[in-house]
């Protein structure tokens, strides 16, 4: 599969069979350049403006925005698990969905706007992701230290940081990626990737952390 980070919490996953999965499309208020991305499946973790702009997608994607198990394509299985957008059981910012995508023998987890530690049930359902898309910027979501702890608890393979401050959202009260990256050795981090191609067979050859050029 091929993975691109469009920006913020939006990723494009393209399977070998050509299925295009988009996570949490953002709107113009986020500051990132808008891209009209083709999508067959749109995963919406919650209905905040920076995560649910399906109007910016091309095509007629199957939208998944509720907890449950889905098979939107014959070779794609999606499990959407309820989580919280804050550390007070959702009383401040509500709920967010945590997605497990299973395809091509890979487990891909996108943690939406997770704002607290995962509980035992969530850890069990999402455990051992080959690829983990995780917020690291804090304030609205978990921050650097808790993100690393969460990745370790899950037993994540490749980690794709998201939802942090960049040149496009400098007025947001969230942190940049520096504090998260400082917790890893330099040789574990790949900087400036345009896209990454991953198969089950080459997992051992991949870097631990991949920072895409979009999230500068």
Structure description:
By secondary structure, this protein is mainly beta. It has three helices and 16 strands. The strands form four sheets. It has a six-stranded mixed β-sheet with strand order 7-5-3-2-1-15, with no helix packed on it. A hairpin with a 2-residue loop joins strand 10 and strand 11 (106-110). The two termini are 23 Å apart. The mean pLDDT is 93.
Any descriptors?
216 residues, six-stranded mixed beta sheet, 16 strands, 35% strand
Give me the count of strands: 16
For the largest beta-sheet, the strand count, sense and barrel status come to: 6 strands, mixed
Spatial gap, N to C terminus: 23 Å
* Helix and strand pattern: EEEEEEEEEEEHEHEHEEE
Quote the average pLDDT: 93
**Helix vs. strand class:** mainly beta
Q: What percentage of the residues does DSSP assign to strands (E)? A: 25-35%
Cα-atom radius of gyration: 16 Å
Oligomeric status of the shown chains? single chain
Number of helices: 3
Relative helix content: 10-25%
Shape: globular
Strand order of the largest sheet: 7-5-3-2-1-15
What low-confidence regions span 5 or more consecutive residues with pLDDT below 50? none
